[in-house]
Amino acid sequence: MSDARAPRRLTSRRRLTLLAAGAAVASLTLSACGDGASGGSAQTRFVQGKNGVDTVKPDEREPAPALSGETTTGKKLNVADYRGKVVIINVWGSWCGPCIAEAPNFAKVANEDKDKGVQFIGINTRDSEKSQATQFEEQHQVPYPSLFDPTGRLMLRFPKGSLNPQSIPSTIAIDKQGRIAARSIGPLAEDDLRKMVDPLIAEK
Questions:
Q1: DSSP string, 186-198
Q2: What pTM did the predictor assign?
Q3: Cβ atoms 174, 152 nearer than 8 A
Q4: What is the tens place of the pLDDT at every residue in 144-185?
Q5: Would you say 33 and 93 are in contact if contact means Cβ atoms under 8 Å apart?
Q6: Sign, Cα dihedral of 177, 181, 199, 76
Q7: CA–CA separation, 50 vs 52, rounded Å?
């Protein structure tokens, strides 16, 4: 009897080991509120900053993907229309604690930099209803529009291996020529957000 049961015990142990290993791998991919829809980190040309902001030299930047659609308030928006400005894209969800924590920082910097050639744009994701997003925007006095992207399809448009959004929240900075210049994964303090934006404002 013991010999017959042994293979079953081994099989069960193998299953538990595989499940544990799978859970460990999954936990490594999670950051902040959740893992993003876009993967890949093959690009080695970017510089990891001490403040959590990764940057790319101007001559090594990749073009930002086409990002357009309907906003949380039902208006049409195309990021390409802001070519010539520094565009800061923040990926967020109303259900995300770190997004709530960083919202005042983004609202403040967006208001103070709007006359400096900077346009903030949000990508709201994983909210099933627009009302969830608009309530968040009203509560936190978000002064800029957000594309409504409940399934994360816009995140998939960022090229793999580039500075792409890989968690919620993530922030992507696009330079005046429409190229991906910087990225932060996770919530940003006001000072760190300014360190991301200010050098791009100064670029010609």
A1: S---HHHHHHHHH
A2: 0.78
A3: no
A4: 999 999 999 999 999 877 788 989 999 999 999 999 999 999
A5: yes
A6: positive
A7: 5
